[in-house]
Write a structure and sequence with these properties.
The chain is mainly beta. Helices cover about 5% and strands about 50% of the residues. The protein contains one helix and eleven strands; from the N terminus they run E-E-E-H-E-E-E-E-E-E-E-E. The strands form two sheets. Strands 2, 4, 5, 6, 9, 10 and 11 form a seven-stranded mixed sheet that branches. Strands 1-3-8-7 form a four-stranded antiparallel sheet, with no helix packed on it. The model has no long low-confidence stretch (mean pLDDT about 95).
Length: about 110
């Protein structure tokens, strides 16, 4: 059973920042695209950002210029730095590896 271990969620005020981390097994991390998705109550899960094995990122329009995705291949870890958070960013955030494996999710709540 492949496990992606997420951390870093929590409660923050609007305008604040959080950093999410996700560690994957080395056997799958290096060769795969890593991504963050989120699901708000009553909404479908959506892609927030992903990053290729070579380090090329893509972002949803809603988070562009506020969020930064990065990866440390030596630590098998992907990060999501979230800045200028708004209540609309409130959701469960899921780490994904290769569009095949998922983390358990971490709650991010932004208060107004």
């Amino acid at each position: 059973q492949v496990q992606l271990v997420e951390s870093g969620g929590g409660l923050v005020q609007a305008g604040g920042s959080l950093r999410l981390s996700c560690t994957a097994p080395g056997t799958i991390f290096g060769a795969n695209v890593m991504g963050w998705h989120r699901q708000a109550p009553g909404k479908q899960r959506e892609l927030v950002a992903d990053i290729t094995s070579g380090g090329w990122p893509t972002y949803a329009d809603s988070v562009k210029d506020r969020f930064i995705i990065s990866r440390d291949n030596a630590k098998n870890t992907v990060y999501l730095q979230m800045n200028r958070l708004t209540p609309d960013d409130t959701a469960v955030y899921y780490c994904n590896c290769g569009y095949s494996w998922w983390g358990q999710g971490t709650q991010v709540t932004v208060s107004s």
